[in-house]
Amino acid sequence: MASNEQLGTKKSEQEQGNENFVTRILAFFNKYQNIIYGVLIGLLVVVCAIIAFNRFYIQKKNGEASAAIVQPIQWLTAGDTASVKLALDGDDDNDGFLSIAKGYKLTKTSNTANYYAGLCYLKLGQKDEAMDYLKKFKKKEDIMWYACQATIADLYDENGDVNNAIKYYEKAIKGEDPYFTPIALFKLGQIYERQGKWADASNAYQEIENRFYNEYNRMSVAQYAERAKANSSK
Length: 234
Known about the structure:
The chain has 234 residues and is mainly alpha-helical. It has helices at 2-68, 70-78, 81-89, 97-103, 108-123, 127-136, 142-158, 162-172, 180-194, 198-211, 213-218, 222-232. 82% of the residues lie in helices and 0% in strands. The longest helix has 67 residues, at 2-68.
């Protein structure tokens, strides 16, 4: 009987505690309701502004940028020096990659224009400028991004910066492109060979065989793999 009374007392105390908690919450709300409503309205305004900005500005700019980039891509595809310069700088009637990258910021096309601008500079032999724009290219389009990392790695390797070359090749090999990825793996293996890291080189070549068997055969990687494996066992 005493036990039931104790349980009843505890239950009553718990209910009273809950009531006190609710009372405090209601009192707090009544005291600060103007501030709370103000904060909620402010958040709603911010959310609506973001939605409106995306719908009426970003989407519009995306459409304009997508149309603007068509001509410079055609110039870049032509490949000759004059066309590449036009692709980069544009002409009186068309924007080039540089102006698209700068004039349509916050759009996906602006990001893509950075990558193409880097390729243009690379074709023109201006490697420092190429590096700058390639590094501005953000990971929004996976296939192009992995190819971009491999190109950056190539530039570092040419400059003798082996550590950064390895760093960017390791980013590039995470892609699944059947052309760029095995080439990046092969170049990574070649760097490891130059460093005398034969086991790492062997692993890079083995990864080509495991993931891209057709390219492994087409690129004749087997001879390099055998040499790396033989040296790694010494």
